[in-house]
Amino acid sequence: QVQLVESGGGLVQAGGSLRLSCAASGSIFSINAMGWYRQAPGKQRELVAGFTSGGNTNYADSVKGRFTISRDNAKNTVDLQMNSLKPEDTAVYYCNVFLFGIAGRVDYWGQGTQVTVSS
Fold it and tell me: For residue 27, what is the DSSP state?
């Protein structure tokens, strides 16, 4: 089995920073893609930032220049540094990992971590 453990959410004032971390553990042979999504109340889940299987990074237009995604392949972790946070960044943030493990190629989701930005 594979587990994703997220940490780092919380409450911050506008203009502040938070860092989210996600660690994947378990029967993992290789990781193809990793990223962060978010879902605000009444809205669809959207990609915030991610690494593709080719190693490229993608960012939502709304976070470019403010958020930075990073990964540690040795530790199977992916982090999201969020700077200059805005109230519209308020959402539940989910880690997503597409990997090859004992169960084959499977998409895994973390439990979600709340990020609240006050104005």
Answer: S
Reported as a single tens digit per residue, the pLDDT across 26-51 is 988 888 999 999 999 999 999 999 99
pLDDT digits (tens, 9 = 90+) for 59-73: 999 999 999 999 999
> Where does residue 60 rank: exposed (0-12), middle (13-18), buried (19+ CB within 10 A)?
middle
**Whole-number Å distance between alpha carbons of 33 and 80:** 14
Cα separation, 92 vs 111, in Å, equals 9
29/11 Cα distance (integer angstroms) = 36
51: nearest Cα among 110, 117, 99: 99
CA dihedral (53, 54, 57, 61) positive or negative? negative
